[in-house]
Amino acid sequence: MASLAAVCLLLLAVATVAVTASDDKIYVHIVPHTHDDVGWLKTVDEYFYGANNSIQHAGVQYILDTVVDELQKNPNRTFIYVEMAFFVRWWNEQTDETKQIVRKLVTETRQLEFINAGWCMNDEAATDYNAIIDQMSIGLRFVEENFGPSARPRVGWHIDPFGHSSQMASIHSQLGMDGFFFARIDYDDKNQRLSDKTMEMVWQSSQSLGAAGDIFTGVLYYFYGPPPGFCFDVRCSDQPIQDDPKLFGYNVDGRVASFVKAAQEQAAHYASNHIMFTMGSDFNYENALEWYKNLDKLVHYVNKKMGDQVEVFYSTPSRYLDALNKLNLTWTTKTDDFFPYADNPHSFWTGIYTFSIYRFYL
Ligand SMILES: *[C@@H]1O[C@H](CO)[C@@H](O)[C@H](O)[C@H]1NC(C)=O
Ligand SMILES: *[C@@H]1O[C@H](CO)[C@@H](O)[C@H](O)[C@H]1NC(C)=O
Ligand SMILES: *[C@@H]1O[C@H](CO)[C@@H](O)[C@H](O)[C@H]1NC(C)=O
Fold first, then answer.
1. Nearest bound ligand to CA 74?
2. Are 259 and 230 in contact (CB under 8 A)?
3. pLDDT (tens digit, 9 = 90+) per residue, 92-111?
4. For 279-330, what is each residue's pLDDT tens digit?
5. How far apart are the CA of 44 and the centre of ligand 1, in A?
6. Which of 119, 169, 224, 307 could be disulfide-bonded to 303 (CB atoms 3.0-4.6 Å)?
7. What distance in angstroms lies between residue 42's CA and the mean position of ligand 1's atoms?
């Protein structure tokens, strides 16, 4: 009896240690993405084909071409796509064979996810709700008709609009989205939320609808880009992962250490031990090989060398939401809007709505 009790105690002790250790671990969701403005410095068609690149180097057709190629090379790799104005232009040019491959990536392996999936990522301050519903409907209907109900987006993804309206949150909730993520909120509000660990919350967006307007809402950390030093795009100049010790510039240990540091820094400001790293930015992945080759290596080496502290894996915002949901946490709530948007003292992005957006960028 005595020895049995001792064994039980020992097992209990081991179990407790295991639970504590796994609770301390940081889980890093790698979210490969591109942010493709549906018209900005060039026209939509110029952006699609990569025309007039002297104005801005950007060609969305190459992003979709190379991402689809790269996803097939490793079933762990994921990608999210947002702006249906570009996706539809691309889809219309594909052969039946490519369409079959893409359908499989979306509905079977689920490596490619449509997120948000309106025609564009609409502004929230100056737009009328009728126009928002129309533009969301056009994109979502395309997804439904070509990929079926299982491809329906579960996440609102407004990483670039200049402030956020409770009306938009309410529309996303009513569209059936499980969560809403964005980057641009007032700098004071963001600082407060970073120190309170309230970057994520439940937005009670509608006074009239009550709970039907509630939506889980998250503010992203590094704006919508990767942690400093980890942009592996043709548009960036960060160092690749150089992993042959016989060659000049071997840097695996240093890169793993700074990745772990970035993960710890971000996790210190969020309520759970799961965090998202947004690996991408404006018109990234024109040559998707460059991103994925380095991300594969990063995932491999961080897990191999620091896996007891930081676990990294390819993910999507919906998979991230599922992970948070399993943790059963309680979130703070938010009512009202995220307006006006100021990114610095005396830097309110409000004149943009009374002046011309074009002049703003000149
Ligand atoms: C864009 O390219 C077209 C075709 O070459 C040219 O006619 C047009 O002037 C260019 N636009 C700008 C703003 O450079
Ligand atoms: C995919 O992920 C699993 C689990 O982390 C890993 O064991 C496997 O090696 C990965 N596959 C590739 C091709 O990287
Ligand atoms: C989550 O919380 C609910 C309500 O407090 C509880 O009934 C349930 O058992 C919890 N689930 C887990 C996995 O902890």
1. 2
2. yes
3. 999 999 999 999 999 999 99
4. 999 999 999 999 999 999 999 999 999 999 999 999 999 999 999 999 999 9
5. 14
6. 307
7. 10
